[in-house]
Specification:
- The protein has a ten-stranded antiparallel barrel.
- The termini are far apart.
- It is mainly beta.
- 11% of the residues lie in helices and 53% in strands.
Amino acid sequence: MIGRWRFSWAWTIGVLITLAGSAGAQEPAAAPAPCDPATGVCLGVEGWLMTCHTWAPGAETKSLVGARLQAEARWQRWRWAVRGDATGVPGEYEPGKLETVRAAEVHVASAYDVLRLPGLATLGPAVAVGAAVALERNDAGTTAHLPNALTAGLGFRASWPGGWGYVVGGVNQAFRGFAVTGTWQVAVSDRVASIGTVAVAGGRAWTATTGIGVRWK
C-alpha cells in the first residue's frame, strides 16, 4: 500500500510539473490584428492632457492647461471624428466649480479619403462643425459672448503616420464673416504630440492656440 501511495503521489507531482513546464513554454498570445476599415467599422479613442498658449492681436497671451478626449470611426473611405476640449488657467481650477474652467468646446467632423498613398498620406474633402462655451466669469460675474454661435466650414483633411490636419473655410466663433480655420495634431513621440488651431479672417484678424499634448489613453 505504502509503495503504491508513493507511486501515485510521484506520478501526480510529475504530471503537474510537466503541465507547468508546458504552460511556461507556451508563446505569449499574439496581439490582435489591426482593424481594417475595408471590412468593418474601426473605432479609435484617445485621451490627452494639454498645455498650450493662445494668441490674438491686441490681447494678452494666455498659458492654459486642459484635457482632450477624441474618437474617430472609420469605414471604407469614410471618417467620422469627434473631439472635446476643456481648458483653464493653471492653478485656478477647483473641482466642482465650472466657472474655474476657462472654456469647453466640442467639434465634429466627417471626411472622405479620396487620395490614398499607402504608408504616406491620405487626403480628401471634409466638413467640420464645432462650438465653444466660455465658462470663465469676470469680476461682474458675467461670461464672455463670442461673435458667432458655431465654427463650421468645408475644406480638406490630410492624415499621415503620426498625424492629421484639417483646413476648412466658413465661419469661426471668434470672428464675424468668412474665416479659414486649420487644426492639427502631429506626433513628436509615441505619447507626445504637437497640437494647435489657427483661424484667420478679414482685416488682419487672427487667433491661434498651440501647445503640447501627452496621451494618457
